[in-house]
Design a protein that fits this description.
31% strand, 4-stranded antiparallel β-sheet, 12 strands, alpha/beta, Rossmann fold, 8-stranded mixed β-sheet, 2 domains
Length: 275
């Protein structure tokens, strides 16, 4: 089932907050081998039960796996191309599985459903598209309003890497040849990194260079807010959350300087009244 409506985004004017998610087929191709986080979130859903609210569901990587595991899920995303692709993938599954998934188009900061959940999740760096303190606070408010009394909120963000943040923005990092699903052509792939220390936002420009016709070359930006560990823990604390667990990966390893991600399991410290 799909609930779809147009939403007015309240994000800053970062083109890269949406651009990477306009091409859902390339998104699926680029992250098709990313499975550890899927297993992690499905295991959490088995532990705490459904229905699960997923914020930033994308093309359904996690939501569809949960449905296949017998768990009901409300999958929310602001990007219509991503949800359209999720609906296409959902149609390939058995009817009983399809009935467990409800797709809903909405910005996570303005989402207000009439349901509370035992588990709310925001996988695959979703929180990194909240750029200001006000946006982050609205995101946490959404979570609080949708958790039941004993509910848990789990999410992951990248661990900032100083070497990456200090990269020369004019230097391209070659990533080999990529066959793009838009036309089946093989493109030379490069990434450029530009970090703004004031906003803590890193822009990754993904460049696709056509091997014979430059007019067919294109690039896509991706902007991500960087969260340093102590900063993130303070934000959770002052927004009314207790951290139950903090890991450096999806296998339960402790957070260290060598980790790629910060993976957090939290709960609300005390129920706040909404206004």
């Amino acid at each position: 089932m799909t609930d779809s409506k147009k939403t007015k985004t309240s994000r800053l004017s970062f083109v890269g907050s949406d651009a990477h998610y306009e091409d859902a087929r390339y998104y699926d191709q680029a992250y098709r081998l990313r499975r550890q986080d899927v297993r992690f979130y499905v295991d959490l859903a088995r532990r705490y039960g459904g229905p699960v609210l997923e914020l930033g569901a994308g093309t359904g990587r996690v939501a569809l796996a949960m449905a296949q595991a017998g768990i009901d899920v409300v999958a929310v995303d602001s990007m219509e191309p991503m949800l359209r692709r999720a609906a296409e993938r959902l149609e390939r599954l058995p009817k009983k599985t399809r009935a467990r998934v409800r797709l809903h188009q909405e910005d996570l900061m303005s989402l207000r459903l009439e349901t509370r959940f035992p588990l709310v999740i925001a996988p695959f760096n979703v929180w990194m598209h909240l750029y200001t303190r006000a946006q982050i606070e609205r995101g946490f408010e959404t979570v609080r309003l949708h958790l039941n009394e004993d509910g848990h909120f789990a999410f992951d963000v990248l661990l900032p890497a100083p070497a990456s943040l200090a990269r020369d923005p004019s230097r391209g990092y070659k990533g080999g040849l990529i066959r793009h699903p838009r036309d089946g052509e093989r493109y030379v792939y490069r990434e450029y990194f530009d970090y703004d220390h004031r906003t803590q936002v890193q822009t990754v420009r993904m460049e696709f260079e056509h091997p014979t016709d430059r007019r067919r070359s294109f690039s896509t930006p991706l902007t991500q807010r960087q969260f340093f560990p102590q900063e993130l823990q303070a934000l959770l604390h002052y927004n009314g959350f207790i951290i139950e667990a903090l890991w450096g990966d999806f296998e339960g390893e402790p957070l260290s300087g060598y980790a790629e991600s910060q993976v957090l399991l939290t709960r609300v410290a005390e129920r706040r009244s909404s206004t």
